[in-house]
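Q: What residues go here?
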């Protein structure tokens, strides 16, 4: 039987690939923001009520994801980032609780500071920070969103991802395609060689999501590359494999970049561990180089 899913933000970078990959196995309801805004409490609860028999799982992809724009709202709980990432997430959770629907909420490794004193990669059971110290406002709102959902008592899973990328999505530039486009235009800037990361190939995110939908497993899960890399190594490997271009990337320093005034804090020693997710779901994530191989196969297909 097909899984019946109500998904918010399903036309975005991550959600649209999930619905593309699993539309044959699932029956989706995917309201767009102009039809239904997750911060509008009454219309949201009416929508849940009206469609209650047409879905059993809810996935929340909807979020404000522009970290620099979010930073301009720091401390402002009336701002869009707090309203969508915290209040909107809570509104969805309350409706899921009321109608006994299983909720899957998408989050990020930016909920952790990833600083020298609080380094990643973070495990699924790493405690969320209690203060904003070292975090950008985006990461803080995403962490509070996770907490508000848990407080409602709804049956739910949180799936954290990091630097998601995929082969085809013209509407929004992602981490990998940004590198390719900058290179093609002769505008590639130095890539950080002192930043630690575990980028998420979106097809692997989708695979985990589908398992969570099928098994309705509660808890916190991660989808990311099985091993660590840096933007410099990622870019160098990607350009060599996708463009045959060797030694074309220069090194930059994230530490220096972040030390300039007005920069949004971001994890520098970041990334997500995936061991608990692998053992609970019985899967293995690809290493970052293997995932780039899959990404390139799709680009060339
Ligand atoms: N992109 C990243 O680098 C990244 C990294 C780690 C984690 N994540 C997480 O992954 C999830 C999906 O991100 P994404 O990159 O797919 O984001 P995206 O491409 O920006 O898509 C987000 C979607 O949410 C919708 N949305 C925003 N505000 C809404 C509201 N008030 N009500 C209903 N829908 C609303 C957007 O609609 P409009 O486009 O029409 O505004 C869009 O369809 C988010 O939870 C994000 O925090 C993303």
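A:
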């Amino acid at each position: 039987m097909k899984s019946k899913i109500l998904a918010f933000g399903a036309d975005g970078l991550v959600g649209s690939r999930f619905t593309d990959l699993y539309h044959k196995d699932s029956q989706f309801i995917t309201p767009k923001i102009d039809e239904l805004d997750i911060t509008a409490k009454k219309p949201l609860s009416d929508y849940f009520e009206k469609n209650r028999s047409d879905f059993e799982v809810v996935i929340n992809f909807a979020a404000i994801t522009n970290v620099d724009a979010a930073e301009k709202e720091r401390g402002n709980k009336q701002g869009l980032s707090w309203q969508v990432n915290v209040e909107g997430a809570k509104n969805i959770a309350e409706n899921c609780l009321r109608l006994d629907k299983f909720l899957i909420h998408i989050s990020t490794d930016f909920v952790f500071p990833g600083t020298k004193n609080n380094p990643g990669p973070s495990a699924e059971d790493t405690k969320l920070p209690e203060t904003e110290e070292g975090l950008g406002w985006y990461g803080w709102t995403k962490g509070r969103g996770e907490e508000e959902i848990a407080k409602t008592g709804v049956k739910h899973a949180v799936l954290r991802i990091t630097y998601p990328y995929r082969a085809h999505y013209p509407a929004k530039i992602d981490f990998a395609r940004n590198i390719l486009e900058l290179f093609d235009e002769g505008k590639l800037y130095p890539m950080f060689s002192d930043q630690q990361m575990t980028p998420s190939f979106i097809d692997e995110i989708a695979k985990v999501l589908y398992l969570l939908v099928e098994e309705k497993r509660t808890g916190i899960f991660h989808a990311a590359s099985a091993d660590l890399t840096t933007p410099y190594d990622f870019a160098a490997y990607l350009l060599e494999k996708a463009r045959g271009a060797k030694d074309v990337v220069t090194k930059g320093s994230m530490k220096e970049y972040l030390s300039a005034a007005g920069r949004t804090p971001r994890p520098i020693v970041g990334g997500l561990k995936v061991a608990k997710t692998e053992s609970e779901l019985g899967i293995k994530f690809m290493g970052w180089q293997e995932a780039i191989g899959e990404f390139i196969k799709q680009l060339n297909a």
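A: Context that may help when evaluating the design: The pocket of NAP is lined by residues 8-9, 11-15, 33, 37-39, 61-63, 65, 84, 88, 106, 108, 142, 161-164, 172 (CB under 6 Å). The mean pLDDT is 98.
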